[in-house]
Amino acid sequence: MDEIFPLVDEQGNVTGKATRSQCHGGTFWLHPVVHLHIFNSSGELFLQKRSMTKDTQPGKWDTAVGGHVDYGETVETALKREAFEELGVTEFVPTPVARYVWQSAVEKELVNAYRTIYDGEFVLDYNELDEGRFWSISEIRNSLGKGIFTPNFEHDFQLVTESLPQ
User: Fold this and answer.
1) In this predicted structure, what is the pLDDT of residue 165?
2) How many CB atoms lie within 10 A of CB 72?
3) pTM strictly above 0.90
């Protein structure tokens, strides 16, 4: 069964609904997604390696948690649901980072990006991702622009690390 996503304006107000395949089929209908950047108390950033079965950016390293908001669901509920589904994380305090429009070759998303500090355990969903690990900020900076990360993560990384020392 095809998932149903809300269609939104750039402020996040729901204007309609559509299926996942419609949203990812080149219509460029704006639909909301959530990203959660998980830092540990040492300042390292957890990244997931996208499953090779994903329809976009398979096999690339990406935001710790990322997923679509379902129709009828709030951004906050989607963030908690995705964190649990992908990493088994339930106890965290999200801090908003940014809301922006991101367009790829096949879709247009309203990204709701958050960050948190978390030192607990992860339970990875290997249907969603191939692996996950913490990266140092310098390791990420040295790997930018080399095709290792999703373009969306590279954009988000600039936003979530603006206040960190170079």
Assistant:
1) 56
2) 10
3) yes
Q: How far apart are CA 57 and CA 65, in angstroms?
A: 14
| Nearest residue to 112 via CA among 127, 95, 128, 100 | 100
The fourth-level CATH superfamily of domain 4-160 is Nucleoside Triphosphate Pyrophosphohydrolase (3.90.79.10)
Average pLDDT on 103-124 reads 94
**Alpha carbons 72 and 63: distance in angstroms, whole number:** 24
CB 10 within 8 A of CB 110: yes
Residue 52 CA to residue 127 CA, distance in Å, equals: 10
CA distances from 2 to 17, 52, 87 (A): 12, 20, 23
